[in-house]
Design brief:
It is built from one helix and six strands. It is of the alpha+beta class. The strands form two sheets. Strands 1-2-3-4 form a four-stranded antiparallel beta sheet, with no helix packed on it. A two-stranded antiparallel ribbon has the order 5-6. A hairpin with a 5-residue loop joins strand 1 and strand 2 (60-66).
């Protein structure tokens, strides 16, 4: 060992390092718990993610409820696109089918006969 650096100092330094690691672990655990509580369903929230579906490694569809409306959104790494929207109370009557070309999604409401959104 180096002169002036005894085993007591070495044990104290290792103990201090272990204490710092334990405090960091406890802080990370507390932050994760706090984050999960913040993202829980709160009655005053105006926007909620109802469902999401991954369609590729970095692409997905998300069904959002914003106030009294539901919105189908396509999400890629570089953009978000609104594909369709309708009143939230008519969501059970929604039918989504692939278009003839297979590359665009058309959404129609069966009862209101609203035009499809591509």
């Amino acid at each position: 060992m180096a002169p002036g650096f005894g085993s007591a100092e070495l044990f104290r330094m290792i103990g201090s390092f272990a204490l710092v690691l334990a405090l960091m672990d406890a802080l990370l655990w507390a932050l994760r718990k706090l984050q999960s509580r913040m993202h829980s369903h709160q009655p005053g929230r105006r926007m909620q993610i109802i469902e999401s579906l991954s369609v590729g490694p970095r692409q997905k569809f998300a069904l959002l409820r914003v106030g009294e409306h539901e919105v189908l959104v396509g999400i890629t790494p570089t953009q978000m696109t609104s594909l369709a929207h309708w009143p939230a109370n008519n969501s059970s009557q929604l039918s989504i089918t692939p278009s003839d070309s297979g590359s665009i999604i058309h959404a129609t409401l069966s009862e209101t006969k609203a035009p499809h959104v591509a």
